[in-house]
UniProtKB/TrEMBL annotation:
Domain of life per record: Bacteria
InterPro entries, alphabetized: AB_hydrolase_fold, Esterase-like, Mycobacterial_A85_antigen
Pfam families cross-referenced by the UniProt entry: Esterase
Record protein name field: Esterase
Family annotation (Gene3D superfamilies): alpha/beta hydrolase
Amino acid sequence: MEGNIENLSIAGYECTLYLPPKYYINDVSYPVVYINGEDNIQEIMGDLESHFGVDCSAFIAISVMVEEWNENFTPWTAPPLTKKSGSFKGGAASYLNFLADTIKPFIDEHYKTRPEPSNTALIGYSLGGLTALYGLYTISAFGKIGSMSGSLWYDGWIEFMDSHMPANANSRVYMSLGRSEEHSRNQRMAKVGNCTRKAALILEKQLEFKENLILEWNDGGHFSDLPNRFKKALLWLMP
């Protein structure tokens, strides 16, 4: 990998920053991709560099780590999935506001960014993908959204989408799901296939341009081939 990986702390949040090749030797400003809670940013970006300038724009990426996904990446409270798992605490609104009001301004001030929403993406996987999609409705700073294997089975989520409108109707939205995910033994999680289909239909009506939405189906289950699923999302979001 030719780009640089840097670790930094922003107001108590540990972050991993990726800077594209030649960042320090040119005067170019870059789009920025914010990633919810992933610690494999080097693996995600490694295969993407060969696409820069060909079928993908070079961009800065920053992964924001959280201590508890069940708190930071859930839009409202909900019961636990199993007797052994913790409850969902509904702290996504606070996390997204902190991301937009503190972390993004820090990155825009200290790095060469293109700060407008059309050049700012928010992506995530699983509950992180749910939170990215929640950000579509609650935060106007992000004009590109990626929800890979998003936990759209979440209690009340489809009803929320159906009763709200995106903060930016011209946003670009990527969604994906593994074909085996809707065969979960957990009855709530097994709803993810139908919920993802319904979410796509709702977004088709809400977004200004239908071509700004894609739902992609991947082979495998929830944990299959994560880096490649991120890669496909980013190639579509950052053309």
